[in-house]
Amino acid sequence: MEKQLLVTSTPHIKSKNTVTSEMLKVIIALIPTGLCGIWFFGIRALILILTSVFSCVVFEFICNKIMKRKSTIGDLSAVVTGMLLAYNVTVTIPIWQLVCGAFFAIIVCKMLFGGLGQNIINPALGARAFLLASWPASMSNFVLPSSDAFTTSATTSATVLSGGSVPSLTDMFIGNMGGTIGEVSTLAILIGAAFLVFTKVISLRIPITYILTTAILLSIFNKSISIIPVQLLSGGIMLGAFFMATDYTTSPVTPLGQIIFALGCGILTAIIRTFGGYPEGVSYSILLMNICVPLIEKFTVPKVFGHVKKGAENE
Q1: What pLDDT score does 156 carry?
Q2: For the segment 232-245, what is each residue's pLDDT rounded down to a tens digit?
Q3: What's the gap between Cα 148 and its chain centre?
């Protein structure tokens, strides 16, 4: 009896990991951040998170139906996008504006490019940029923790980066300060990040390079090292570094490419925060580097084993 040799394309590595299992791990990792947001900003934070997740899932389901594609809501990527989008908005944002953001994230940033794995920018960050451009007042209406975000008398406050009062480093680390729902608690973000690293969903290559680059350049630009703790504990750098810059689809797959990508994010963040007219910079930095990913991978792809250079075969 003759034996047949089956020849297939690479890769030949089998893994029990699936898109759904990886997304479920990300959801679990995001829960501490959401709980802290609800603790500091109240029940309205929970309403916004649930609204964002529900809207993203519904828009993806409807889009698949219209385009006659197989339903993809089971991979849980829309849930992750909904959570990240909610974490990137203020607790006072009108619900209808958040729904518009969910539509932009799923339909424009994701599904029109072909769905998960085909999008060129992070959907949640793309939607955040859309909301900032469309309703800057709503996206900048920050309130202090424990304020009643349902009322017009909520205690509004500028964030640390936009010139507001600087809380103690302990309060900043825990999350007792003004900001978006998911960016205030560094402690909660690090707990979730530790889970992702432990379960090997992400590596520390991008986050560490991003954070260190930003810290070093900010200290150089501002000629002061003392500002670094405040800069790193405020704004969205921790959330962005661990949960959005590490997105599989919109970040390089090569180790060298990931370092270059993270360096670019750090450089842009430091420049925007120091010299730009916008106090944050994380979202736009990651989005700009998302666009550069194909170019980065083109020049950092490893050599193919056994590949013969053009013209070498005639030598």
Answers
A1: 62
A2: 998 899 999 999 99
A3: 27
pTM of the model as a whole: 0.88
Burial 286-295 (b: 16+ CB within 10 A, else e): bbebbeebee
Contact status, residue 206 vs residue 255, Cβ threshold 8 Å: no
* CA gap 184, 6 in Å, rounded: 54
Of the candidates 275, 274, 259, the one whose C-alpha atom is nearest the C-alpha of residue 215 is 274
* Gap between the Cα atoms of 146 and 40, Å rounded: 6
**CA-wise closest residue to 250 among 93, 119, 92, 71:** 119
Tokens of 167: 């809380």
Would you place residue 157 in the very low, low, confident or very high pLDDT band (cuts 50, 70, 90)? low
pLDDT tens figures, 104-126: 999 999 999 988 888 999 999 99
Question: Six-digit token pair at 193?
Answer: 């990040």
Q: Cα–Cα distance between 245 and 289 in angstroms, integer? A: 9
| pLDDT of 312 | 53
What are the tokens at 228?
């670094």
Separation between Cα atoms, residue 312 and residue 315, nearest integer Å:
5
